[in-house]
Amino acid sequence: ASPFADKERPEKGEHFVTPVLVCEVIFTEWTPEGKLRHPRYLGLRDDKPAREVVREKPQS
């Protein structure tokens, strides 16, 4: 689900796009606000369509 699903309408200067690119990132953890802590971009992926991307569970 979109993190913007609860917003009634975009604020001034905001616009929504359809995701088409997939990138891989590593990070320390999810914050209580649902943001990434210390994210690091690893690169684009061409092996997975954007519509198949889901929030993954942490690995132990």
The N- and C-terminal alpha carbons lie at a distance of 25 Å
Q: What is the H level of CATH, i.e. the homologous superfamily?
A: Nucleic acid-binding proteins
Low-confidence stretches: none
Report the CATH architecture: Beta Barrel
At the first level of CATH, the class is: Mainly Beta
Oligomer: single chain
Spatial strand sequence of the major β-sheet: 1-4
Helix coverage percent: under 10%
Q: How many beta-strand runs?
A: 4
| Overall spatial form | globular
Tally of alpha and pi helices: 0
Average pLDDT reading? 85
Kindly estimate the percentage of residues that lie in beta strands according to DSSP.
25-35%
Question: What is the CATH third-level topology name?
Answer: OB fold (Dihydrolipoamide Acetyltransferase, E2P)
The chain-level structural class is mainly beta
What does this structure look like?
With 60 residues, the protein is mainly beta. The protein has a single domain (1-60), classed as OB fold (Dihydrolipoamide Acetyltransferase, E2P) (Beta Barrel). The protein has no helices and four strands. It is globular.
Task: Put the structure in a nutshell.
By secondary structure, this protein is an all-beta fold.
Features:
single chain, 60 residues, mainly beta, OB fold (Dihydrolipoamide Acetyltransferase, E2P), two-stranded antiparallel sheet, two-stranded antiparallel ribbon, 0% helix
